[in-house]
Amino acid sequence: MNPMDDPAGPQLRPGFWQGLGLPAPATGPDQGLAEADMPADPVDLLQRWLADAVAAGLPEPNAMALATVSGDGRPRVRMVLLKGLEPGGALTFYTNRRSRKAADLAAVPRACLMFPWYAVHRQVIVEATVTPLSTAESEPYFRSRPYGSQLGAWASHQSSVIGSRAELEARYAELAARWPEGSQVPMPDFWGGYRAEPQVIEFWHGRRNRLHDRFRYARLDQGWLLERLAP
User: What is the Cα–Cα distance from 27 to 20, expressed in whole angstroms?
Assistant: First the structure.
């Protein structure tokens, strides 16, 4: 999850820095959220908060916890990187389709994602339905990855047991010999993206005395229902 794997960072909606009509960032515990601050579309606020996290210099600002449930009901969580935020609000990320998270999503295609921006007193939770991206949708991002990360996608049989790190590095060296730098590395058929379509988005802003501000958007047939929650 090295940010140098993707120097451009997450692919955000064009113009997200301007034109949202939102108040200036207010990230301290003496400042917070009021109903008047909340846009009709929660994606606008998610865009703004992500931009604020980037501007604040937070490490891995596009890192998000991805919680899934296995087919037999076992909860699991891990960190992944947000790689796209679509105009309709869908979040995209990429992984090995033979991993445990992929197996969980195949069995139960729902997930909860969380952005932990605690250094600026903020957190966002997203409850979403999840569908895999097609090969055609996944390939452009794979092509944009650095050469080493492309080989890494082939080298790691993610979530499987291995005997040693030497085994992993030997596999990488074999692949580097097969596809030398400068040649085109094909995208593995076991690797690709996922689209998480938000059904609920909750914004949390830390305040003093544990009297935090919490607002929840729930998707309706048309638009979103906005509610304030007790902290």
Answer: 18
d(CA 220, CA 227): 13
pLDDT, averaged in runs of 10, over the chain (231 residues) = 39 39 50 90 95 94 98 97 93 96 98 96 97 97 96 93 95 96 96 98 94 96 96 95
pLDDT of residue 159: 87
Alpha-carbon distance 119 to 157, whole Å?
34
Angstrom CA distances, 41 to 18, 48, 112, 225, stand at 15, 12, 19, 10
Identify the CATH homologous superfamily for domain 9-18+27-145+189-229.
Electron Transport, Fmn-binding Protein; Chain A (2.30.110.10)
Maximum C-alpha span of the chain: 59
Distances (CA, A) of 11 to 7, 95, 177, 181: 11, 17, 32, 25
- 3-state SS of the chain: helix, strand, coil percent to 5? 30, 30, 40
Q: Do the bridges between strand 110-117 and strand 91-96 make them parallel or antiparallel, or are there none, so unpaired?
A: unpaired
Cα 191 to Cα 193: distance, rounded to the nearest angstrom: 7
Q: Which letter does DSSP use for residue 173 in this model?
A: H
Integer Cα distance of 158 and 161 in angstroms = 9
Q: Mind telling me the catalytic residues?
A: 210
Task: Report d(CA 215, CA 124) in Å as an integer.
Answer: 10
Q: Taking the CB of residue 128, how many other CB atoms lie within 10 A of it? A: 23
The residue behind tokens 């301290």 is: 28
